[in-house]
Amino acid sequence: MLSKLMAMTRAELKSKLASIDVSAVKGRSLKRKFEKIRSKKEGGFTLLELLVVVLILAAISGTATIMLQDTDRRGAAGAHVAMMDELSKGIQTYRVLHQGKYPDLWESLLIDSNGATSDREFPGFISSDLIANLEIATINDLNGTVSTYADGYYLTTGGNPGAGNYLSEADRDAAIASSGGTLTASDYTTVADGIVTTNPAADILTALNDVGITSVRNLLNGGVGTTVKDKDGVTDISLEWDCQAANLKKTIKDKENDVVASNIYRPAAANGCGKEANDTLTDDSSVAVWKGGAYRVGVPVGSGNTDPVIIAFGAGPDSTLFNPEEIGALSNVPVYRHVESDEYNHFITLWQFKNGAISFQAIIDGAGDTKDEELGEIDNTRPT
Fold first, then answer.
1. Interval 41-59 mean pLDDT
2. Which of 111, 248, 323, 327 could, after both became Cys, cross-link 119 (CB 3.0–4.6 A)?
3. Could you tell me which of 353, 95, 50 has the C-alpha nearest to residue 203?
4. What span, in angstroms and rounded, lies between the C-alpha atoms of 201 and 113?
5. Structural domain boundaries of the chain?
6. Rg (CA), the chain
7. What pLDDT, in 10s, does the model give residues 180-190?
8. Above pLDDT 90, what percent of the chain?
9. Is the separation of the CB atoms in 122 and 225 below 8 Å?
10. Any residues with CB less than 8 A from the CB of 137 and at least 6 apart, and which?
């Protein structure tokens, strides 16, 4: 009998006890014990105890979530630094493998660098943090001007004073007369054909072309993008999306199409709102210009070069840097994650014009931060 009871489950024992008629139990003492056993409740927590446990678990969970979120952001910052290094090395390697030519077909960061004046603006999906570090100018605006000073003169021993500071012939003669015979006309250098300032006209365009940067990707800004998708192997469906510049953030968010922030400068066939053809850079083309500080992006402190011409382009998937047919091309397009899902999420390449030549300067992220500033996010010395 004992072995049978021991073989029963907890539920079977409870059922067995419940089926016994208490009145059939002999003896007052045994009957009381039996009633006590049968009526005894299973042990458990009170409501207050459960509430305390729930509150403790909630507090632990909340703290862990905050810590994990911060860890996730710092991890992303670490990935961004690695991507910036990869891009920098990739650009320099590409140049070595292509006889001094840099990758081409960068994204303009504008609606249309070659379009109407109203289109030569930053599109709404560019981060406001990035825009705060940029200005827009035509290549001609960045070039210097040529000024002619007929019969202009300067004292040779004093060095060339620069455009706008030359003496007229009358002023030169007056200086000679007042010198008491110590100066003659031979002591002056004549400037008859004009002087060209720091960046001669067309020098920047020529410098860009000389290093292989000839064309950019621009936005369509108008109409709709369309593509045909295979729905079920039998039926094709046509997708359309709005490519008006003012509506691009809405287009990116719309789940009814395949447009995402990372392919927005690509043509419709690639689920983007970019032009079908690339735009050739001209003297009249507008470009984004870095104004976030020369020293921040690696210009040597003490060089005196505090306001150099630094042009900014986006590193998008149509760049030859990511073309698998090119020698030394990178296999993946880095994506910056510390922006909203409907904002531009590519890294930015910076190019400095100096001494008549263009050279690669630095990589910044989609929020206008430098590599050193991203490292601060990893070290938790600045906010992510």
1. 68
2. 111
3. 353
4. 19
5. 2-39, 71-144+201-218+275-378, 146-196, 220-259
6. 37
7. 889 999 998 88
8. 49
9. no
10. 286, 287, 289
